[in-house]
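Notes from the 1:1 (GR / supervisor)

We went over the backlog. Supervisor wanted to see one worked example end to end before approving the batch request, so GR pasted a single chain during the call. The sequence is below; no edits were made to it. Supervisor asked that the structure be written out right there so they could see what the output format looks like.
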Amino acid sequence: MIVENSGAPALRLFPVPADDHVTIIWPHEAMGFDWKVYDACGHEVLVGSASSAFGEVIDLRGLHAGVYVVHAYTASRTARATVLKDARHP
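Structure output shown during the call:
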């Protein structure tokens, strides 16, 4: 489920599929990173930041079931991963 730009460290999301929350971890970004979540049409639906590589819990409760792309970025790197929000949880 992980897609990343060439040369970028792996971005991790779990659990997949997700229900109400997903945790995002980017191990090589110890100083933290910003993130955005996009729906299948490319619309930005959530935005936030993680203060360390240990990650951030993203609240998905306001999103409909479906596929979302999470972009994480710093001034010098970007990575992305796909998460499926489970249909059992609106």
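Supervisor's comment: Residues 1-6 have pLDDT under 50 and may be disordered.
Batch request approved.
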